[in-house]
Structure formats: structure tokens, C-alpha cells
Amino acid sequence: MIQIYSNSLGKEELNAIEKVFESKWLGKGPKTEEFIKNFSSRVITDNYQSIAFTTATPSNFITTTCCTDGIFQIMDLLDIKKGDEVVLPSISFVGVANAIMYKKAKPIFCDVDKHTLNPTAKHIEEKITSKTKAVIVIHYAGVPCDIENISKLCKEKNIKLIEDNANSPFSRYNNKSTGTFGDLGVWSFDAMKILVTGDGGLIYSNNKKYISKLERLTYLGLETSSGLSSTIDKKGWQFEVSSAGRRSITNDISSAIGIEQLKKVDTFISRRKEIHEMYNSNLINLDWIKLPSVPNYTYSSYYMYHIQVDNRDEFAKYLREKNIYTTFRYYPLHWVDFYKSKEKLPNTEYAANHTLCLPLHQNLTNKEVNYIINTVKKWKR
User: Which of 149, 173, 246, 273 could share a disulfide with 144, CB 3.0–4.6 Å?
Assistant: First the structure.
């Protein structure tokens, strides 16, 4: 079976893990600091000219156990509570809506462009009310959404903007990294992402007060450190707590993997782009398929390759019988009874009934890609 997702882990990652074992320091420590430093240097936070830009600093980031936990932490940080509303596209990861429900707030699902599956500022503005406290967006399949206009809208309305950057870890809009347009951004490094650390995530903010508070929320609400990091004139077992925080951090094992993955990620994305272009160039003449596109003012991470066809379910079954695994991401949340939504979202519903993600990962061989292309072409509708 040709898999839809795959990671690329090898001897470099194993050797890095072995060195962490030898150090006897497995928890959050020097390797985590190194990973954050190396990752932050890849995140472009501002673009002054076509060749001049600035990057994020390690102080802009906080580690977390996963992207979903990062969203939960942000809901706590922003004091989202009962009666508040948070606007998000219905085509979002389930964990995002769960974080809103956890705070007894109400997720308000907005529509998306029916082909890109990304929301626009107009889609979001239609759902904003006096109760709206935050907006959460994704960059579907790695292609940036209408993020400049969405950011402008949220600033005008004094609404917090959160970017779920799990699909788009190295994507850019007008040469500025996604995840840095809003008040907060969250990255994912789980086993099926482009950059893999086993699990884990990062939260970004350019607001120093947010980062300071997140440092406490993600580590047991501790105001003062304990143990060896305590000052010499104080008992190491003493501490102060200011909030009921959780322990939501990564460790040096995962970070060591991430350091090695960062060295390879450009190659991963380059190969994904090649496969994306192979699909497009070979399927473009099929009038029964709608192909994805990447606007020239954006840079994609090429996380997913999604097409749209009539009789999508039959087509997926046909491909599975030919040992090609496909899927659809993400099942519309306004259709999930738990969220008690009564929204009618025509573009989302069109996308949900027509969209299929074909295999896209750096481990695919040209032989496998050509097999997928030829199999698609042979489908008798």
C-alpha cells in the first residue's frame, strides 16, 4: 500500500538520541534550547525589502507537548470563558474545537474557499459578533490563507488571532512566515508532519507578556524555579505557584531528533514540491479533476496534495483497491453533533464531498508517483 504520509528518520537521529542517553539528561535541557534556537532562525518575522528580512528569536517560543496542547494553553492564556465565542473554519483539526469547548466557550464555524479550503477575511467577518474573543485559522495543505487581510480585520476589531501552523511549518506569505501574523502561532512536530520529533510543538508570540505567562502555564504555574537552577542563597526545594498550570513541555530526546530533522527539511520540502508539480503537470488535462494551486506570492510547505472530483467516495475506493491510500482532511466540525452547530456552510460542504488527498511525502519514488498518476488516469467514471 502506498501511504499518504511518511516520515524520514535515519541513523543521524538515532546517533543524536544515543548522545542524549549518554548525557544522562533526558528532560528539557540543552538540546531543547538548541532546537528552539535553530528553529527560530528559520522563522521570518518581517520583510522590509525583497532581500532583507528579520527572523524570530528563541525568546519568542515556548515548547509544548503537541500542537493541540498548545491551543489548550492559549485558551487559558487568553482567559477564554463561558459565553465567549471563537471563530474558526469548520475544516479544522478536531483538537482546536475541543480546546474551545474545554473552556465552555462556543466555537463558531465559518466557511472557506471551496477549492483552497482556506478561509478568507470575508468568511471570518461574517461570523464576528460582540461575543467574539478570538479567531483561529489554519493554512490548509501548507498553502497560506488570506492571512494579511485576516490579521488586519482582527486588529481593527480588537480580536486575538491564533494561527494553527501544523500544516505549514515553513510556509510564507509575501516572505513572512505563517504563524507570525497573529498574536500567537502554534507548530506541530508529530509523527506524520514534515518535520518530525515523535511528538511535540512550539508556541510563538511576539508579546513578551504572553511568553512570560506561558512559561508558567506550561510548567505547573511555577513562579520560582526549584532544584539546581535555584539561587544559592535559597533552599532548592522551595518554590512559588501563581496559577494551576500543567506540565506541558518537550524533552531533549525529541529535541535531538528535531535538530537533525532541521538539517534535512529543505530537502523534504523540495522533494514534496517536485511531486506536487509531477501531479499537476500530468493531471492537468483531465477535465474531471480540480487541481490545487500555490499563489506566486506565497511559499508552501507542501504538506498535502488535494484534488476535487465528483463521486469522490467511489474514486477513493477504486484507488484503495489499487493499493493507493487516500484520505480527506479535515472532516467538517459543524457536522459533529458534539459542537451543537447549526451552521450552513455551502463551500465547506462542497469541499467535504469532493476533496481527496493523494499521497504526498518525500519518501515517494518517481515510480510510485507515476503509478499513482497512471492509476488516476485509468479510472472509469
Answer: 173
